[in-house]
Amino acid sequence: MQRSRIICAIGPTRHALVYAVSVLLLLLGSVPGAQAVEVPTLYTAEVPLDKGSDNPRDDAYKTALIEVLGRVSGAQLGGNSVAIDELFPLPSAYVTQFRAGAEDTLLVSFDGEAIERVLRVAGQTVWGRERPLTLVWLAVDWGQGERELIAAGDPERTQRQGRSIDRNRLLRERVLEIAQQRGLPLVFPLQDTTDLQSVTFSDIWGGFDERVIEASRRYDAKSVLIGRVRPGAAQRNRWTYIFGAEKRTWNGPPETVVAQIADLLAAEFAVGGNAPLETVVLSVAGIQSVDAYGSLQQLLSGVSLIERFRISAVVGDVVRYQVEVRGGAERLRRALRFAGLLEQEEEGSFGSPEAQPGLDFFFAPGESNPSPADAP
Fold first, then answer.
1. Where in the sequence is the domain holding 170, given as residue range(s)?
2. Is 143 found in the same domain as 98?
């Protein structure tokens, strides 16, 4: 599994950067086995700077901290100002750098490790930097027969079609900025020839989700959002969300839907600071080269549930680990599935009936789906 460090878009050229980052996320998310991306700027926020207040910078620090805590610990803490004041009575103590943004804003970066320590000691949940990449298929009915699918980029069009490009861009940037505020990596499909042959507007609008899910395989995305939007109409937007084997449907604006996805994924992957450490035996087969071993080590290092791990035995192509994990074996099982390992039927490690029960997986990076560059 390959992991990518993605920097969220902030600053004076916010809209251009949001678009550029979304394309970069898409390309990196399309690499075989890349089912998650690392978002290192979780602890950076751009907030208004009210120069008329008594302490404009301190007020901006607190506003930025609230946004960051919403990404890292969830909406429950992010919306609880009393709890935030108790945990972080002096937000400026956690600021590592700041600079002026565009239009009276301030970009503030915090000490992520220090904030995580406070959260864990207080028993609050922490959702790490590595997060699922969500692919969005969005069908828009503009009315008067104008129907389109929103793509990751803007195709070349005639001058008469410029209005369509502009409104598509605005809608796409709106969704991307909402996702950025919640620390949710999100991209749109390329809408290249392969996509256009695989999925039509009618497929999405008509609810033929199976075709959309099949088309999503080339992006190796396990978190897929399908939207049907009719701007300005009385009909409410319809959304379908698929994550693994789970499927949900919602109505409402993009802000609400993206927030619900962020909350769902946080509930799946965030770890409570008061969750006890448990030792789980993990056996991984298919390690037949030094490169495979290095890739597996990197994969395990990136799983936020894992505090530490060590090798306890190697037999043939099977490596056995002692893994200290928060959340227990079942949450580790789900995290490893998401990371791209293939689960095997439990037969006891190395086939020994006396072996300690644990998790058995197979490492097969070649089994991943092709990237768009490799797809026909």
1. 134-152+164-269
2. no
* Domain identity same for 264 and 286: no
Within 8 A by CB and 6+ apart from 121, the residues are 273
Q: How many domains does the chain have?
A: 3
138 and 264 both lie in a single domain: yes
Cα–Cα distance, 17 to 13 (Å, whole number): 6
Contact 77, 123 (CB under 8 A): no
Q: For 7-46, how does the pLDDT look when each residue is reduced to its tens digit (9 = 90+)?
A: 333 334 344 434 444 444 454 433 333 456 778 789 999 9
| pLDDT tens string 80-113 | 999 999 999 999 999 999 999 888 999 999 999 9
Backbone angle region of 259, left / alpha / beta, with phi > 0 → left and psi within -120 to 50 → alpha: alpha
Does the residue 211 lie in any domain?
yes
Structure tokens at 49: 């700077």
pLDDT digits (tens, 9 = 90+) for 239-275: 999 987 789 999 999 888 998 999 888 888 888 777 7
Same domain, 88 and 183: no
- Exposed, middle or buried by CB within 10 Å (0-12, 13-18, 19+), for 360? buried
Same domain, 139 and 261: yes
